[in-house]
Amino acid sequence: MHRHCPKCQGAATKDWLAAREADLLPVGYFHLVFTLPAEIAEIAYQNKALIYDLLFRAAAETLLTIAGDPRHLGARIGFTAVLHSWGSAMTHHPHLHMVVPGGGISLDGARWVPCRPGFFLPVRVLSRLFQRLFLSRLADAHAAGRLAFFGELDGLRDRAAFAADLAPLQRKNWFVYAKPPFAGPEGVLAYLARYTHRVAISNSRLVGLDGRRDLPLQGLPPQRTSVVPHDDARS
Question: pTM of the entire structure?
Answer without folding.
Answer: 0.80
